[in-house]
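Sequence in, structure out. Go.
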Amino acid sequence: MAKKDDKKAELTDLPGVGPAVATKLEEAGYSDLMSIAVLTPGELADMAGLTEATARKTIQAARKMMDLGFKDATEYMKDREEMATITTGSKNLDNLLGGRGLETGTVTEAYGAYGSGKSQLAHSLAVHVQLPKERGGAEGMAAFIDTEGTFRPERIKQIATALGLDETQALKNVFTARAFNSDHQMLLIDKIVELINEKKLPIKVVIIDSLTSHFRAEFAGRGMLADRQQKLNKHIHALIKLAEQFKVAVYITNQVMANPGVMFGDPTTAIGGHIVGHASHYRMYFRRGKKGSRVAKMIDAPNLPENECVFWLCLEGISDSEPKDKDAKDE
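Output:
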């Protein structure tokens, strides 16, 4: 993992990398030390017009600055304690996620059928991230990639008002983009990096609603399954890198299908197979419960047991009790 002062390091701090070479690398999509550290001398030499000897020195310097070696678990524990968290708005759901909500530096996935509450949690997180830390927020902004046309600014206003926030400012703190295909969706991750790096925006949560919609539509049939999974794998690893490098929480929703091989029990299965399942740090399954409630089940987590909780959808986003109003969107 990078040292704490890595954010101040620039490409031009590396030996052999002047402004012209840095521009070449940035245009090619290599704008940070990590992207240089994982290259081979030949790749960097061809890309930047350097000799292999110079490229080797550049890569070694990048690796040294990034501190890519081992460290003891006490240091790692200290890094974990410094991670920010974002409340979901529900203590039940926060507890399911370890007690304080979504962690920065991780990818959290929620899959379930339409109306199970996935998109409502997305809207709630986009507002709760703006709260001060003492109220469970991260004092940051949200980046919302909408692939299905589910983003509703009206919900942002409703939730912000319920939380006592200025609704106009709350809207300004949510950057949203409609992704029209899988390539556009992947490109938008680079745009988020630009917002953080170049515009210095304090984005603390990145939301994709939903992750697999375009991939599922564009790569239909078994003959295209391998191509779809390869492209999806590249996309989700870019999300993991984004989460870890910039200390943001990534929340993705996922579509489902009915597995015909399941004869007993719930046949609902998430789209994306093992590629998505193994990549998500925290994986939850949402479904409708009794009396209009929603049930969230923790399917997989590195440090949490399999468990479930009940929550409700309401005007203020996510709640632990049945709402008096019936106006919340069932998305």
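Check: Residues 1-7 have pLDDT under 50 and may be disordered. The chain is about 40% helix and 20% strand.
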